[in-house]
Amino acid sequence: MERLQKVIARSGIASRRKAEELISNGNVKVNGVVVKVLGTKVGSKDVVMVNNQAITIEEFVYYVLYKPEGYVSTTSDEKDRRTVLDLVPSEKRIYPVGRLDYDTSGVILLTNDGAFTNLMTSPKHNMEKEYRVKVKGFLRKEESQLLSKGIKIDRYITKKAFIKDVEYNKNNETSLATIIITEGKYHQVKLMFEAVGHPVLKLMRTRFGIVTLDGLRKGEHRRLKPYELKQLRKDS
Ligand code: URA
């Protein structure tokens, strides 16, 4: 159920302010009855009419995509690059929840539910994000500790992080590591590793909350399952 003015605004026929005006002025009917109370809740089974024209109440949809490298996670791109929306065809006006860099692969959620997006991306909510990262050089224990405790990137100190499963490749002098963070600052993982002298060569998000890439190949997507949605909301 959603507030009437929000439903009207989301249908694209009026701004939220204009929708409120339409309601107060008696231009809106719900199931044939004029409703003037702002904040009246309606669901997908209700028939909402504005000036005697029915509007469609868009149902919320939620997807997880295994984003490949080479896609931007915006709905359009000024450089005309491919976007994640090219991989998730939908009649609904969906958009990505948060961002992954152009050259980052992995889990990205998409939805048309703004409240859900806010829950998932708000810094207050500490949603866990897990990344597998390949960096230049050998990541030492002390450096992992610095990253775990919190490190300065730009003018910001990162929150506690968790580093595990560090592996070295002696042939090309690189390291692989898993890092779990609860924030989503711009280029956060890349900036964190750069701050300890290990530029990121490859980055993949392997988990967002409880949602992993299990069962998906690069470029594939699926609907989130009801239990996943429930758990994501609970964890936020
Ligand atoms: N951190 C980054 O640096 N890039 C991403 O795409 C995600 C997290």
Task: Describe the protein.
This protein has 6 helices and 17 strands. It has 3 domains: 2-54, Roll (Structural Genomics Hypothetical 15.5 Kd Protein In mrcA-pckA Intergenic Region, Chain A), CATH 3.10.290; 62-123 and 211-235, Pseudouridine synthase I, catalytic domain, N-terminal subdomain (Alpha-Beta Plaits, 2-Layer Sandwich), CATH 3.30.70; 128-208, Alpha-L RNA-binding motif (Alpha-Beta Plaits, 2-Layer Sandwich), CATH 3.30.70. With 236 residues, the protein is an alpha+beta fold. The longest helix has 10 residues, at 226-235. The strands form 4 sheets. Strands 7, 8, 9, 10, 13, 14, 15, 16 and 17 form a 9-stranded mixed sheet that branches. A 4-stranded antiparallel sheet has the order 3-2-5-6. A hairpin with a 2-residue loop joins strand 5 and strand 6 (53-55). The structure holds uracil.
Short description:
With 236 residues, the protein is of the alpha+beta class. The protein has helices at residues 4-10, 16-24, 114-121, 141-149, 188-195, 226-235; strands spanning 2-3, 28-30, 33-34, 41-42, 48-50, 53-55, 62-67, 95-96, 104-111, 129-136, 152-153, 156-157, 162-169, 174-181, 200-208, 211-212, 221-223.
Query: How many DSSP helices?
Result: 6
Return the domain count: 3
Structural class: alpha+beta
Mean pLDDT reading: 94
Per DSSP E runs of 2 or more residues, the count of β-strands stands at 17
Q: Please, what is the CATH homologous superfamily of the largest domain?
A: Pseudouridine synthase I, catalytic domain, N-terminal subdomain
Give a quick account of the main beta sheet: strands, pairing sense, barrel closure. 9 strands, mixed
Q: Would you state the CATH class of the largest domain?
A: Alpha Beta
CATH architecture of the largest domain, please? 2-Layer Sandwich
How far is the first residue's CA from the last residue's CA? 20 Å
* Spans where pLDDT lies below 50 across 5 or more residues: none
Principal-axes geometry comes out as elongated
Q: Output the helix-strand order.
A: EHHEEEEEEEEHEHEEEEHEEEH
What share of the residues lie within helices? 10-25%
